[in-house]
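Quick start: read one record
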Amino acid sequence: MVSGDFWVMIAMLVYFIVVLTIGFVYMKRSNSSASEYFLGGRKVGPWLTALSAEASDMSGYLLMGLPGVAYFTGASDAGWTAIGLAIGTYLNWKFVAKRLRKYSVVAGDSITLPGFYSRRFHDDRNIVSTIAALIILVFFCVYVGSCFVTCGKLFNTLFGLDYATMMVLGAIIVFLYTLVGGYLSVVATDFVQGCLMFFALAIVLIGSITWAGGVENVAAFLQSIPGFLSGTEIAVPVLNDAGAQMTENNMPLFGDAAPYGVLSIVSMMAWGLGYFGMPQVLVRFMGIRSAEEIKRSRTIAVTWVVVALFCAICIGLVGRAVIPLEFGTQSAAENIFVVLSRMILPSFLCGVVVSGILAASMSSSSSYLLITGSSVAENIYRGVINKKATDRQVMIVARITLIVVFLFGIFVAYDENSSIFYVVSYAWAGLGASFGPLTLFSLYWRRTTWQGAVAGMITGTITVLVWHNFIAPLGGVFGIYELLPAFILSALAIFIGSKLSPSPSDAVLYEFDHYMDHADDLEAKTSAEAARNAHAETNA
């Protein structure tokens, strides 16, 4: 191993030690109860909540997927996606966070998202939570796989090491600190990783622009590529029979720019709808210390997201000017951040910066593992199979689930030609369409019923699967991102299903009408139950 590789490896090793230490520090507290392990006892402050929500959300998509898209086809796809994500982030924090924090306490002190859905409708048979947990299991297995792809590509690009071996190694590290430390270790490491990701994006962007000779030189080069910097056109790389971009006179070859119309813009901005149904973000709202701290947390989160997305896209664009012939496919172009870091930074600092990629993938995959484990253990095992299960038994089942998802994620990630952007887009659509409309209806429409909830989740899931695999390939108007039609159909299914089913009970309606009136501490649960029981006795 050359000297440069040695110092890069040392920096990354230090990072590994830090995140594993955090996991072991929180081990005793996290294992004291299921509530502590799955939700940190609702004691997480605004800074940790904000950065944990965004770091776990963005994953390797931010540092590899998005720059790769920008490098390969220009600003349109990446730019409109980022705008949709920024708007979705703000709206989610604005209209969902505070209500979900309060309602999840009043609704039986719910510690998982599927649990909240069931208790919101007083679904004693746990039909809603079981279906929700199964959907999470399916799509988070895919999500975890995308994070493991990131780990494999990183080490393969940095050191030329075998992709599969390095992918498995990264997966094992994520698995260990999630298994040991639970929610608090995930949140704490997310905070560190969020800061590291922000630092990495900023330093690589500034260094790349300096390396290229300044903004004017970069802009002049990129403007020579048809449609590359346009928001209404998209660059079209000319590909050979193998699917790689062709070159001519030592320059990448592009055809005429293709139009990027309103349908394409709407399709990319529809990514923002996914936030309303992302368990890894919604569970952060449930775990914050106080609903009154949501506003501060929102400011931190939105600022982080806007700056991070802007830097990620610019790195992809600037990278095309710095090393225009380096990558022939979009999948390969997802390594642009890594390659630029090696070019412009001293070895040890490069190791620190590329640890930001590990930070992104590890923060996300740990959240996905934990949420999947908690959903299966709390909502299927304790909710359906063994209703008298102890916290210890629930946590054992959760850890077994982690092992299963961990192994399936490795299976998904085994193909090193997988595109992080497209793997993430599939899982994002599935979760967003299945849970997004249900979250909004649960918080804002008192007439929503458990039958409508089931109809909405199933419709959203099936629409994503069918649209992605059978309808989108038809092209034209059908090529729109599957999240948008699936979200709309899921919302319609909830509305129609609720209207066709009996009205919710008086207890459910009373709880809905008053959940925002209660304090957001755990005493709210007791007072809400007492008031609900008194109300029921009066009606009787």
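DSSP finds 21 helices and four strands in the chain.
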